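Hello Y.,

Per our agreement to keep a running log of every chain we model this quarter, I'm adding this entry. I've kept the format consistent with earlier entries: sequence first, then predicted structure.
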Amino acid sequence: MNLRDWARRIKRDALTLWFACRDPATPWGPKALCWFTVAYALSPIDLIPDFIPVLGYLDDVLLLPALIWLAVRLLPPEVVTRSRVRAEEWVARTGSKPTSKTGMALVIGIWVLVAAGLAWWLWPR
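Predicted structure for the entry above:
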């Protein structure tokens, strides 16, 4: 398997997790991890913007694939199979992936919390 195939599988599995979140057979622990991973993976904005040298791509190259891999490994095999079929049907039908407004809100919320924490820490006392 080459790098291009691996990247394609990771993208497919992000969409697979989107369907796994909605599957009633998914246990609550993996469902929570799937929800977080999907919200971040399908968010139109990144936690670390890509224009920041090196760090901007760190989440795309390391963090996101690791979260997707872990979530897929924690899911029951039958949920993964059903969800992969639904993901492939979705891509064949629409030709694109959905976006997550929840993920965008999550990323913006983290930015706000970090900014508030920095302001509190740096505020002269």
